[in-house]
Design brief:
The radius of gyration is 20 Å and the shape is globular. Helix 3 packs antiparallel against helix 6. It has about 280 residues and is mainly alpha-helical. The strands form two sheets. The protein has a two-stranded antiparallel sheet. Strands 3-4 form a two-stranded parallel sheet. The chain has eight helices and four strands. It has one domain.
Length: about 280
Amino acid sequence: MKTRLLAAAHNLSNWMVPLAAIAIVAAFLTIAPPGILGKADAIGYAVCHRLDARSFHVDGRQLPLCARCSGMYLGAVLGLIFLSLTSQRSAGTPPKAVLAVLALFGLAFAIDGSNSYLYLLKQTSAGRLDFIPNLYLPNNTLRLLTGTGTGLALAVAVFFSFNQTIWDDWNDRPLLSRWQEFAGLILLALGLDLLILPEWSWVLYPAAFLSSGGVLALLTMVYAMLWAMLMRQENAYSTLRSAWLPILAGLTIALLQISLIDIFRLWLTGTWGGFPLPH
């Protein structure tokens, strides 16, 4: 009986998911600000505070994500592309040394984020919290670097989980099993950050779209996995083409989440900009 119900649900989803995708994409395009960058802003708006002073700017325009979130999602995009090229269907646990370095990246992110948030509280507390010391003066360079490191860790975690959940031919070769691979990935991430820091327009324009695309890519992969598990279709796909349904379902749910958060935040703040700060 359960098998029949699952088969019926799967057949129904073949029709319903594409229709839902069309509706959600249309709704998102209607809700989001005009222009391509406006659509990127709407994606960033759902996951980032978008404070102007904590963001990079291109031609006087704030990027869709703050410096920390830009680094995080650019690092995730870089990591996903790198792993797709070097590891393909591998889904073995990375070596302990790699996990330790990624954990240190996460710790640096937490420390810098906490220090930065405390500094923001002190700025908006009218002097009431000045007795609390900061570890150091926060800045966008550290936000970008710590965000990028965490993005690499996110890429490894999501890539690992996606391969184990979706593909029928995944293998247990450990991700980043050779130190040269991991060192190369870190150097690429550092090079990316060094290109962003001068705020050259020819770098920041593609970075704006790639970082927003990173938000969508990560959410799509996570929701695709959840869809496959819900429909009892784990390890049922051999190619991206055959996995179109969970991927499209993941994209649809991701855009639905982004749209609902956008609507709520816009209703709450009345602006597509950063969260209003108290004076």
